[in-house]
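Why run this: before we spend reagent on co-expression, it is cheaper to look at a predicted model of the complex and decide which construct boundaries make sense. The entries below are exactly what would go into the expression plan.
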Amino acid sequence: MKFTWSWLHDHLETKQDLAAICEALVMLGLEVEGIDDPAARLGAFRVAEILSARPHPEADRLQLCEVDDGSQTLQIVCGAPNARAGLKTVLAPVGTYVPGADITIKQGKIRGELSNGMLCSEAELGLSDEADGIMELDSSLKAGANFVEASGLADPVIEIAITPNRGDCLGVRGIARDLAAAGHGKLKELDLSEEAGEFDSPISWQIAENAADLVPRVSGRLFDGVSNGPSPDWMARRLTAVGQRPISALVDITNYVMLDLGRPLHAYDADKIAGDKLIIRRAEAGEELTALNEKTYQLASDMLVIGDAHGADDIAGVMGGARTGVSETTSRMFLEMAVFDPISVASTGRQLNLHSDARYRFERGLDGSSPDSLAGYVARLVQQICGGKISRLEIAGPGVSWQRQIAFVPARTAALTGISIRPEEQAGILERLGFEIDRKQPDSWQVSPPAWRNDIDGAADLVEEVVRIHGFDKLPMTALPRDFLGGPPRL
Amino acid sequence: MAGLEDLKTDLLAAIKAADSSDALEKLRVEALGKKGHISAELARLGSMPPEERKAFGQAVNQLKNEVTDALAAAKASLSQAEMNSRLAAEKVDVTLPVRPESQGRLHPLSRVMEEIAAIFADMGFVIAEGPDIESDYYNFTALNIPPEHPARQEHDTFYLKAGADGSRPVLRTHTSPVQIRTMQASEPPIRIIVPGRTYRSDHDATHSPMFHQCEGLVIGPDIHMGHLKAVLIDFCRAFFGMEDLPVRFRPSYFPFTEPSAEVDIGCSRAGGGLQIGAGEDWLEILGSGMVNPRVLENCGYDPDKVQGFAFGMGIERLAMLKYGIPDLRTFYDSDMRWLRHYGFVPSDMPALHSGLV
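The model came back. C-alpha cells follow.
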C-alpha cells in the first residue's frame, strides 16, 4: 500500500514530521517498507529558461542553447527537437546524478562545443516513460527554482506492508485513523452525509436467486451528463506517485477512492448497458467475457458475475468488463459499490489467475456499511470533478451483518499482556478506533466493532488493539518462573 | 668309542655355531632324527658283541642326552635373542603425539539448532517433534487458518495425493502443527521448542523448498506477553552473544496468535555490510504472539483458564546472520570445502557455561 505524505494530511491533522510518522506506523503494525522522497532524490534539478537555440555547427540533430539557470547564462548542447527559445524546462547542473539515464553530468565538449549541464526529459528524471523531448514546464515558473518544489512533486511516497487482517488499512483513511488513535494527530472529519439525488436511476439491480448468498449488499447510482476528460492535476499527481497510471477522470476517481477509502468502485457506461437491469448471478459454465485488461476469460459456474441483457460483463469484485466500461466520451455513468462474499472473490480470482487491486481488497473484507455510508461522499466527488446530475441510490441485498457485540473484561488486558492500562484509557483507544462500548457494567463491557474491522473476533483481538495503540514498547519483561515442572523428567 | 667323541665334538660345535632356530632344527634332525647320526650309532648296537654292547649303549645314550640338552639350551638362548631383537626393532615411543586424523564437521544448521536448544533448555524448555507429512487440519485448520483464508495463499504449500477420505496431506509449511499435537497430547504447563524441517513450494536465491524452523510454545495458567518478551529478548542476546543487543517488538498478524508481534534486532548497514548490534536499522528475526483462544479451543483447552505464547524462527536466517554465511543455497550444496570452512568440530558441543559465540 502506497500513499503520499500530502495525501495522509487530507485525513490526518498532525505536526509530526515524516520520520516520526513512519516510526509510529511501524509500531502500529503497519510496517514501512520504503520511503521515497523526490525532494531528496531530485533536489539538485533546477527550473531553467532557454534564452536562445541555434543549430550545432558540427551536428544536424543537436542545438546549442543559451540557458538561464537563474544566476548565470550557460551554454548547453541539447538533442531534443522541442528545445526552443522561451521554453522553461528542467536543468541538471554539472555534478547532478540523473537517475533515468544513470549518469552524473560533467562539463564537457560535445562535437567540439562546450556543454555545461543537461536539459532533461521526464524519463531522464525517472518520472515517466516520456522520452520524446525535454520537459515543458509552466512558463510562470521562475528560472533557478528548485524543480521538485516548484512543480508540486515534493511529496514523499510511503509504502507500507499490510497484514492480511487489516483490510481497513488498504485505504489512506484507515492508516490515518490508526495514527490518530495512537495520538499522532487528529482524524479529520469526512462529510459522509447522504446525497438524495434528483431522479430515479434508470438502471436497477437484480440479484439472482443462485447468487443471493454471495451478495449481501450492493448500491449504485446514475450520473447523468458527466464530462469525462483528464482528471485534475492533484489527483493525477497522487495516482502517478503511487504507481497508478491516470486514464480519465471517471476511471481515476474509482481508483482514487479505492486508495483513499479502501472502497473499490466500478464505473459502467450506462449507454452501453443493454436493458435497464444489472443482474448479479453465478456464471453459466463456459460463459466468456472480455475484461478491462482486454483478455478473455472463460468462466465456471461457481463464479459471480454481473451482466445485462447481453450477458456477463463484470467478474464481481475482480475486474470489470470491456464492453460496458467507461471511455473518454462517456456522459452517463452508473457507479457500483458492492460487498461480495470474500471467499467467492478469492476463489474466482485464483481460478482465473487474475489479480487486481479490487480483488485484493474484496478478499480481505470491506467495510460492510460502505455501499450505503460512502455513497453520498463519492457522489459529490464525482459531481465536483465531472459535473452532471446525481440519481437516487439504487440498493439491493439485505445488508452486511457486521454488527456484533463482544464481551470484554478490561482486566483481561493486564492478564494477557502484563501491562496495566486504566479502563478509561482502554475505552478511549477503542473509541478512537471506531469501536462503540456499552460500559453499563464497569467490569464487563459490551464492545461493538466498527463496520470496517472484520478481523475483530473476540476479547483477545480487543486486547491487541488496546496494547498495539498503547505501544508494544511498554510491554514489561517478566522472567518465566524457574520452578517449572512440566515436560518429561530430567536428570 | 673314539668315533663317538668326534661326533660329540662336531655336533656340539655345530650347535654352538647355529645362529637361528631354523639352523638348530636342521641340526636336531641331522643328529636325532630317524636317519640321524645318533640313531645310526644306536642301530649299530644289534650287531655288537654283548660285552661291548652295554658300554657303547651307555655312551650313545649319554651323547644323545648331551646333544638334546645342548639343543634345548641353544634354542632357549636363540629365542631370547630373537625376542630381544624384535623388542628392539618394534619399540614404540608412547609419548609421541597422535597422528593427525581427518575429522568430519557439523553442519552450521545442526550447530545452530544445538545452540537454540542449549539456550531454551536453560529456561526449562524441552524438545518436541512431529511428522514432516502433516494433515491439512494440523498444518492449517487447527491453527485458525480456515480454507480460503488469505494467509493460506501465502504459504505456497506442497500438497500430496489425497487419501481415502479425500483430504490432501501436506508437507508441513511450518513447525506450528507440533503446537497442536503437543497440546492435544498433554496438559499444561507446557514449555517446548520444536526444531525441524519445513517445506514450501518456493525456490530462488532467498528461498529453498526445504528449510528449517524452530517453534516454541509456553502454556500455563498465567503466562502473559511480558514473559514472551523476556524469553525472546534473553534468547536473542544469548544467541548473538551481545548483552546490549537492542530488541524491538512490533505488532503484526499471525492467524494462530493474538496479539501477535514481530521481533526485530538492531543492526547497522553503514558501509554496505550488515553489522548486528546497536545501529540505525532493524532486522526482522522472529514471529511471536499469545496463542489465539481459537487455537486453545481446538486443542481442548479452556482459554479462560490457560493461556500462553508461541514463537517461530527460521534457522537458516539465524545461522546466516550469526556466522556470516551470505548465500542460503550453499547450505544444501554438500560442498566439502564449504563444510570445512563453515562447519563445527563435533566434539565442541554448544553450552551456555562455555559461551555460544
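The mean pLDDT of chain B is 90. Chain B touches chain A at residues 123-126, 148-151, 153-154, 188-192, 218, 222-227, 229-231, 233, 248-253, 258-262, 290, 292-294, 303, 307 (CB under 8 Å). Bring this page to Monday's planning discussion.
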